[in-house]
Amino acid sequence: MKKPSPFPIIHKNECKACKRCIIACPLNLLELSEDLNENGYQYVKYKGEGCTGCGNCYYSCPEPLAIEVHTYKRKK
Amino acid sequence: MDNENINDDFELKILKNPDSIYDNFSRKGEGKQSVTHYCGGCGHGILHKLIGEVMDELEIQKRSVMISPVGCAVFAYYYFNCGNVQSAHGRAPAVGTGLSRAEDNAVVMSYQGDGDLASIGLNETLQAGNRGEKIAVFFVNNTVYGMTGGQMAPTTLVGEVTTTSQTGRDPNYAGYPIHMCELINNLKAPVFIERVSLSNPMNIRKAKKAIEKSLRIQKEGKGYSFIEVLAPCPTNLKMDSEEIQEFVEKELEKEYPLACFRDRSSEVESIKRPDSNFSKEKLDEIFNINRGISFKLIDDDSIKPFSIKIAGFGGQGVLSAGLTIAQAACNEGKHVSWYPSYGPEQRGGTSNCSVVISGKAIGTPVVEDIDVLIALNNSSIKKFSDDVKEDGIILYDSHIDDVNINKNVKSIPIPAVKIAEENGNIKTANTVFLGVLSELNKIISKDAYIESIKDIFAGKEKVIDTNISVLDSASKWTRENI
Questions:
Q1: pTM score
Q2: Where are the domains of chain B?
């Protein structure tokens, strides 16, 4: 069976637009939104494909509840 | 990380907020409760997550106590789902010492900033490190006082602009950045010392490894671990995320090199300390408190305040004679106060104490009109004889030469040293005066003095016996000679 693609989930209302994850993404797959979230910040969006599940965005994000990364590992 | 079956060949792993960090940051006030109170781009949230992940992985959440600092992370207890104590500026090492000694099994973490740890708390930090306390210290170094608005910190770089170093830190005025890891590395006791950085994802992962090591040391009870975390403060340094990352990587990490300064975790054993016992019974035993005794206070308006001043030089038993009288008065159900006055010297300085005994509540423990002055040296006679009431008495040791009392009050020389010597201990000369007092003034019975001596010297049978025989000899002498 083919390995499913990893992907980030960004909870937009927890984002403060610091852009740390955008800088941290090695493939430049994140970008800032045009519109604002509930708190009045722009927020980070996933461009939609290419995520390798490296987790850099998760680790560099200062907001504990803003980013999750879903990734798949082959069962042992 | 959660595991979930997706299909037969692969399983899902989710990198997300660890269990040891709350999933809602409930707190008072308005605003969204699912975001931190930190500024965008701040390093604290990253470090919180890393610590939380390690707490999950080591399964120490239930044993963990986080000490919240003063500084931006003052509300760390909004986030860490474990035991929490909020301590005053710089006092986290003392609080942590108390926690780890009272709760031997606790994993104690002290989370402090540079103002807290490297400035006001520097002494306590070094002392706790030197004692090898079982504490994991997370020292967040962002080179600036964050919460108070960006003032210069001990760790501010030379030339760095802050609100209190507006032309850049000048070492001729403000010294040099303080290097905490290097400083702590001069101490023998610490087990693990490492400096890490939150500048970029690679360094963040290395920081997590150091945190893992540090908390494993705590899990195994091996002693002090210190991690300095170089962290971004984009708000106070007025930079965006790219600029602050470059600042941390190029300037901070240059001034403060990332390194493991010490790792003795595989060499040292768990620290073994006797079990702590803070039970009431144990404390009563240590402080010699007998809760069976209750003093029944008897109000009696006919007993007017009776003032005794005992004076001499330190080491003559001035204060303990006063305490013995006060304890005896307690034993008789009287109101009593004891008020010492002495210099910094243990021996050789002057010393006096005032005791007031009364049948009703005592207004002031300060004695200005003395009923009985017990003077153990000549300077005490000179100093206090003028304060003795006209119908008062001065008792002094007959060894004192050149006694010159201006005031016309009764004065009695007592061969105190001689009586004490005859009973085998010259140090009990102070007790001679109590024996005399018990005969001259019946406000306190001799039995009460004996009980008091037993209380004051509890556990020292020989001392009790000697003092009681001195008391007897003195009252016998008084009956025969006065």
A1: 0.76
A2: 2-263, 288-481
